[in-house]
Structure formats: structure tokens, C-alpha cells
Amino acid sequence: MSISDFSIDRVSAAKRRISGIARKTPLLNSPSLSTRTGSQIFLKLENLQLTGAFKLRGAANKLLSLSDEQRARGVITVSSGNHGRAVAHVARKLGVEATICVPKTVPENKIRAIQALGAELLVVGEDADAAMVYADDLSAERQMTMVHPFDDLTVIAGQGTIGLELMEEKPDLDTVIVPLSGGGLMSGIAYAVNAIKPDIHVVGVSMERGPAMVESLKAGRVVEIIEEPTLADALAGGLNKDNRYTLPMVQQYVDETVLVSEDEIAKGILYCLKEEHMVVEGGGAVGISALLSEKVKKLGENVAVVLSGGNIPMQVLKEIIAGGDGA
Ligand SMILES: *Cc1c(COP(=O)(O)O)cnc(C)c1O
Fold it and tell me: What count of other Cβ atoms lies within 10 Å of the Cβ of residue 19?
């Protein structure tokens, strides 16, 4: 399959397909961020998605699109945590066997959540790229379908359903801010909102520590990065070397990228807690971080910020609260 086969109809079909599994999440105006920025800011609450992150959408679309024979053989994936949990959740619902490969860097809370869903969990490799090599081999050996965390058009169509929900609920959006790692979330959303409103401004946000997609955009090809520990663990990891879809889609549909520091990520998480009364993980809070640090160059009048997940370890949350000003 090539990118030219992708269409807004595939995203619409995904929306119908996953409606029994994934939640339509709320889009809420944030008075405090609106006052601060002078724009109307709306938060898309994927931290309230089942399994705690948007990844359920892509996983559901992929597994529901498999043939009976593929379902019978089972699925395999590699994940920094949230994707594995989503695949395990959908696999259990559909009675499909799932094998989830995670690198050693995945936090304990995400590992436990995957195991609780009954999937086979293999901790393999020092980082996400090493785990992917292992999973690819195992997928061929066991003839299980690989559910790629981002570079798969069916997964991308699932994530794109967020873009459809945004434009249906708020047709006058002119800016969308999205966390950016492998780019499955971004490719789906950016494609969908551009299809509906070609002049919309799309902003991707990554962390300064190992921003694989942003480095690859600069170089015009996949660049390997060294994975570093970050509060935005869900954004860590590289692009796959043979990237087929997300790099070209991000190149085509994303207008601006922003990098945020660890301190800015912590401030974003704390802001969500204090002002929005919401638990958001580091990778989910980077859009807020970008707004608070005033790093977004072009902010329109009506801005959606995707809060992509809420699976933060309690220990990390405790440390961030302890590091705040206590007010
Ligand atoms: C996976 C993930 C992302 C990044 O998604 P990509 O498709 O890899 O860009 C962002 N936030 C959270 C919470 C995630 O789990």
C-alpha cells in the first residue's frame, strides 16, 4: 500500500469501525490557557481515552481490519508502553492472541498494565529500535501480524479519527497542536484536518532529548538518534529505518515543529494538574508546554491542543509536584 491510497474516506471508515471500542473524547475550552495566550484554546482529552491514551484508536482499526485467518495467527507489536497496552486491550476484546515486545526503558506501570490484560509480554532490547528488530524477526517466525506503532496506514487512519472529531465539533479551528514522535498520531490528524480545511496550521511538538522526527525532517531522511531518558517517555524512540509513511506525511502536512525541555514538560504536567485538574503524562503534556513557553510561532484564534495520554507513573507525578512551587 502506498500513501496515494490513503484518503479521508479511510479515516471516516475507521471512525465507524472503532466506534464500539474507542471513546469519542471531550474537547473542552481552557479559560486559563485562553486568557494566557489571547487565543481560544481547546483541549482534546485523549488522556481520558480507554487504556489512557489515543493509541487505542489505531490498534482497534488495525485489529478490526484483519482477516479471520490473520486473527487466528495472532498479532505482535513493539511499544514504548501505550501502544502495547492498546493492542493488548483490543486483542483481548476480540479474542486474538497478542505478543507485546517492550524495550527495557518502559516504565513499570505500563508493563503491569499490559500484563494485566493477558498479553504475552517480552522485555527485549535496550531501546525501542532494538525491540523493533526483535519483534520483526519474531513476527516472521511465528507468522503473526505486526501492528506497527506508527508506520502503518491502517493505524494512521485510526489516529486520524481524532482530526475528524476535532473538525466536526469545532469547524472554525485554525490551529492544531499535536505531540510528535514516530508520527502516526500526527500523520492521521494532520491529513484529516488538512483534507477538511487546507489552510489549517498544524504544529508538532517533541522533546529536546532525542527528537527523531524533527531531526529527520531537517535532514530530509530518517536520522538515527540516541535515545535519552525523558519525562515524555511516550515520545522516545526513533523512526524505523525503512520508514514509508509517517516521514513523508509529516513533511507534507505539518507546518511548524517545536521542541520543549524537560523543565518545560514538567511545567506542562503541573499546569494540567493545577489549572485543568487533569492527570496528563509527559508525552501528552508537550502541547501545553509549548504554549506556556510561548514557543509556538503562529497561533490562530481557535486552537486545539491534543493531550495524547495520561499514563504517568505516580512516583514521577509525586516528584513533579514536589518540585513545583507548592502553590
Ligand atoms: C505514542 C504516543 C505519542 C506519539 O505518537 P506517535 O504516533 O509515535 O507520534 C504521543 N503521546 C502519547 C501519550 C503516546 O502514547
Answer: 12
CA of 170 to the centre of ligand 1 (A): 23
pLDDT single digits (tens) 284-323: 999 999 999 999 999 999 999 999 999 999 999 999 999 8
Residue nearest to atom 1 of ligand 1 (CA): 234
Residue 286: exposed, middle, or buried by beta-carbon count in 10 A (0-12, 13-18, 19+)?
Answer: buried
CB 181 within 8 A of CB 216: no
CA dist 168 and 193 (Å) reads 10
Please give the Cα distance from 162 to 150 (Å, whole number).
15
**Could you give the angle at the alpha carbon of 193 between the alpha carbons of 307 and 235, nearest 5°?**
35
Residue minimizing CA distance to atom 7 of ligand 1: 184
Q: What is the DSSP string of 181-216?
A: SSSHHHHHHHHHHHHH-TT-EEEEEEESS--HHHHH
Task: Quote the CA–CA distance of 108 and 102 in Å, as a whole number.
Answer: 11
**Who lines ligand 1 at CB under 6 A?**
53, 55, 82-83, 150, 179-186, 234-235, 281, 283-284, 308-309
Which tens digit of pLDDT belongs to each residue from 250-295?
Answer: 999 999 999 999 999 999 999 999 999 999 999 999 999 999 999 9
- Enumerate residues 6+ apart whose C-beta is below 8 A from 38: none
Alpha-helical (H) ranges within 108-211 are: 108-116, 128-142, 153-169, 184-196
CA 236 / ligand 1 centre spacing (Å): 9
Read off the C-alpha cell for 253. 502536512
